[in-house]
Amino acid sequence: MDLAQKKLFLFDIDGTLAVGDALLPGAAALLEEIARRGGTSLFITNNSTRSQQDYVKRFEEVFGLHTHASQFVTASYLTARYLKQTYGTAPIYVQGTRSFVQELQTFGLNVHTELPCEPVCIVVGYDSELTYGKLSRTAQLLQQTTVPFYGTNPDLRCPSSFGFVPDCGAICAMLTQTTDRIPTYLGKPSAQVVAACLEQTGYSGQQTLVVGDRLYTDIACGQAAKVDTCLFLCGEACEKDLQTTQFIPDLVLEGPQALVEAMRTVGSP
Question: For labelling alongside 171, which of 5, 58, 143, 180 has CA 20 to 30 A away?
């Protein structure tokens, strides 16, 4: 892999650039270095708790970083785009945060979060506002209908300041154990995540690097799209996981600061 040729950097956020409300060491410097080299940073997070606009606000207010909505190719955005293309204005049932619901509505989707409801599909996101009532309603619909069941992303856990919290994959696993219904996931590791970024920016796959902390979503996503990958060991994956995974990254680094140093070492294209 020729790091000097990379112009499009597709970053996971949680565990890769930040944990909770804190940027990881070197994260701001890394984004600045990419911009200085004339490159582009996009954020391909599977976290569906926030809309694109909410991420812009969070980056500004919490991290002190100025971004644009178009830089966030989130699981929420990709889910909304897929649902709109597939179901139009037909009723869909959604279990997720208020921000997730609002983003789906901005696409003109006919979103329902209460019963009774006769949806054409059921969608579950990473829900930091989860209640037992929400789980019960979703479980009821999954058992009373045969409509498609979608999850925004298969991540089992999301990094937090004290370790990890259950992510969408864990929430869907509860529902699967209860209803025997298995979801189709729409975010990473789908190759469509990278394809959407290439389409948006005009860069080639050879100019692209996927950077993340999870082997089974971030690295798998890059490999599915046939682009180079970089694993940071500051989030979920650790060095011992590399001995058993089928998703071997092209580059393994400790975190953002290490990538800054590697980029400065190889220089600009």
Answer: 58
Tell me the helices (H) and strands (E) count for the chain, helix number first. Answer: 9, 14
Separation of first and last alpha carbons in the chain:
13
DSSP state at residue 22: E
Which among 260, 265, 237, 262 is positioned nearest to 249, based on CA atoms? Answer: 237
Nearest to 218 by CA among 58, 29, 56, 17: 17
- DSSP H helical ranges for 49-131: 52-58, 75-87, 98-106
Other CB atoms within a 10 A radius of the CB of residue 139 amount to 16
Alpha helices in the chain (DSSP H): 27-36, 52-58, 75-87, 98-106, 132-144, 168-179, 191-201, 220-224, 256-266
Contacts of 268 (CB under 8 A, 6+ apart): 4, 37, 38
| CA angle, 69 then 250 then 125, to 5° | 40
- The DSSP call for residue 255 is S
Q: What is the pTM of this model?
A: 0.84
Does the pLDDT of residue 23 top 90, yes or no? Answer: yes
Count Cβ atoms below 10 Å from residue 191 Cβ, excluding itself.
16
Q: Are 58 and 23 in contact (CB under 8 A)?
A: no
